[in-house]
Amino acid sequence: MSRINNPVRLKTLPLLALRGLVVFPGNLIHFDVGRTPSLNALHRAMDDDQNLFLVTQKDSTVEHPLPEDWYSVGVVAHILQIMKLPDEKFRVVAEGIYRADMKGIIQAEPFFLAETVERIDRNTNNADKAIALERELRTRFEEYEKESPVIPPDVLSKVQKADSLSLLSDTIAHALSITLEGKQALLEMVTVTRRAERVLNYLAHEQKILDIELDLQRKVQENIDDNQKDYFLREQLRVINDELGEDDNPQEEAEEYRIGIKSLHLEEDIEKKLLKECSKLSKMPVGSHEATVVRTYLDTVLALPWNQKTEEVYNLKNARKILDDEHYGLEEVKERIMEIIAVRQLSKEIKGQVVCLVGPPGVGKTSIASSIAKAMGRKYARVSLGGVRDEADIRGHRKTYIGAMMGRIMDAVNQAGSCNPFILLDEIDKLGNDYRGDPASALLEVLDTEQNVRFVDHFLDIPFDLSKVVFMTTANLAETIPAPLYDRMDVITLSGYTEREKIQIAKNHLIKKQIKANGLTVKQFMLSETVLKAIIEGYTREAGVRTLERTIAKLCRKVALEKVENNKDLKITVKNLEKLLGPRKYMNEDPSLVDAIGVVNGLAWTSTGGELLPIEVSILEGTGKVELTGSLGDVMKESAKIAISIIRDMADKLGIQKDFYKTKDIHIHAPEGAVPKEGPSAGITMTVALASALMGKPVKGSVAMTGEVSLRGKVLPIGGLKEKTMAAYMNDMERVFIPKKNVPDIQKIDKEVLDKVQLIPVKTVEEVLEMVLVGWEKGKNKKHAYLASEGYKPSTISSSAEN
């Protein structure tokens, strides 16, 4: 036995562990790299000499392997090519150079760096034996390659060009389907003849398996031939049965479809297209796939309500009664529906209108739709659009696709069973879009009364008149509705319910509904207005009434349990509410009502309604750094910068140091940091909070404010005033400062809110500071005179704290 007389190569190389792969010297390998340590090792190798030390994991399921998780014998490989994949991975093409042992790990972070030493092949002194093994390997492999479908053509070329027994053995071992452990054992063998003998055994074994597979394939092919024979015989039998009139007749089936199509009295071009499909069906074999597609298509078309129309109800008094009985409040929506019914009574040819209800969850947008349909005497169908990302969901799939069907719009018309139904498109603001198309764009034709007279669904491929349909849509946020779609709708904005409205809704609707759902009677379950008020104030602060309904349902279950277990009637009072529902979630003694330095109550408008948004400011000794926290968006960050500039400009008037922006660190924070916040309406709040913190003057805790600010200290108008004032009312605010230009919006605010909350319009930041900073007297009397002249009753500003 002799060794190849070459110097042993010692190298320190980046280590990369492979899963399910063993590399052999002289062979190419493709693998994907995605794990962070592996990516780091790959980058290091590319920065050096493009050499890597490749080892194989013992268990491919280990995600983060350590030295004990891989074999110590691997291959030093040279990287030939790297391709970046879409999922942040890389595909690597490398060629094995020589076997190597891992002598140690130098580093483990950010990738493994290993010391390697080359494993030198040991050749036999028996040259004749080596020649015989080489010839046998070549012969056996050529025979195997001719019959094997998995060996690439270039492998045979590499085998023929192999100039040594070692390279020949490695090349054949790389090409064979050998187990991971088997290939690793071959890699670790340094005696070339032993390795060749082992590969020869594997090759013989693979040849035996291949012979068995070929035998099985021959038997399968014989079975296929028998099946084809059966098919031809059955076809001949079908023709004979057709001649005898003992089987389905496609001509008769097509004629039945023709009669159904003509009975619909459709437009000439539509009827012509459908009759053409009937002619196709008459020429197709009954059991063929194409016939099934045509049959399904014709059945779907004939099932549509082409001429089925419901008679509309034009009784305004009855429609008003239905809406009032089933829903409390929502006066603007009811008024709009009354207008639609009145107009249709005068002009029956008017096309369907599209109304969009925008408001927070739980205010009755979806539930009022069925009541409107009943009031109008139309069939009702609902289409949920939340999460829809595929244009085909709206327009349907081409009928040639497997599993094709109509889109949701035509499916809703079909379900309603009328060509003039009332269709609710729910959650239209939550439409998505991706590579499969934009469903919002597909809805443009549906909701455009000038275009939907000939709406074409991809499955039907014929026009259908949607102009007789009355569409209503719902959304939580108007901002997320695409502008072209928004432009096609008559938008009605709904705000949250007041406490009085919630009590009436609970008494007239929710309690009755839950009593029936839980098998109780009116005598067994009663809630007084006092109890309802305690539930609303302590457990369900929300814009809508969903949580209130769930809370009433919970109390119903408590009463039912007491009745079944102890045969007693449970009376619900304010005193036993905490025992039944747990501790109060909301307390009246809110800390935000206490006067504090650098803390001001702002108002926010979200998809769930208005919310109180406190802004906190801390002034620290420092070097002029500004820290903004609380998941603030870019616009809010800009508002904070504007606030600092305004206060710098007013430093003399406020009596603060002019260089505070150099000598003080400013930290502005909006609580509930996990919730993203955005918008310019917190500008006045940030400015007042910053002035309060710098002056050391507390801000009245019973005051809230909203408004964008300009760099000149002007208070600019904002949106969502109705929802924001509702939030102030629900949080016991006494006064709310609003932009002067928002005064016209006050008429939309509920009277109950206006009775409890004083709205003070302002033009500048200075006006707000004069009234909210406790102990700052500048311009106080002048300001009161201004407010009185504007017709708003001012509250007395006291130097003491107001809770």
> How many strands in all?
26
Q: Give the termini distance in whole angstroms.
A: 99 Å
Oligomer: single chain
Share in β-strands: 15-25%
Q: Overview of this structure, please?
A:
Helices cover 44% and strands 18% of the residues. The strands form 7 sheets. The protein has a 7-stranded mixed sheet. Strands 2-4-5-6-7 form a 5-stranded mixed β-barrel. It has a 5-stranded parallel sheet with strand order 10-11-14-9-15, sandwiched between helices. The longest helix has 53 residues, at 192-244. The chain is flat. The protein starts with a strand and ends in a 13-residue tail after the last helix.
Secondary structure blueprint with pairings:
Elements: E1 2-3, E2 10-18, E3 28-33, H1 36-47, E4 51-56, E5 73-84, E6 90-107, E7 113-118, E8 122-123, H2 127-147, H3 153-161, H4 165-175, H5 180-188, H6 192-244, H7 250-263, H8 268-282, H9 289-303, H10 316-326, H11 331-346, E9 354-358, H12 367-376, E10 380-384, H13 392-395, H14 408-416, E11 422-426, H15 439-447, E12 455-456, E13 463-464, E14 470-475, H16 483-487, E15 490-493, H17 499-517, H18 529-539, H19 546-566, H20 577-581, E16 596-597, E17 599-606, E18 609-621, E19 626-629, H21 634-649, H22 651-654, H23 660-663, E20 664-669, H24 683-695, E21 698-699, E22 703-705, E23 708-709, E24 715-716, H25 721-730, E25 735-739, H26 751-756, E26 758-762, H27 765-772, H28 780-790
Parallel strand pairs: 2-4, 9-14, 9-15, 10-11, 11-14, 17-22, 19-20, 22-25, 25-26
Antiparallel strand pairs: 1-8, 2-7, 3-6, 4-5, 5-6, 6-7, 12-13, 16-21, 17-18, 18-20, 23-24
Helix pairs in contact: 2-4, 2-6, 3-4, 4-6, 7-8, 8-9, 10-11, 10-12, 17-18, 17-19, 21-24, 24-27
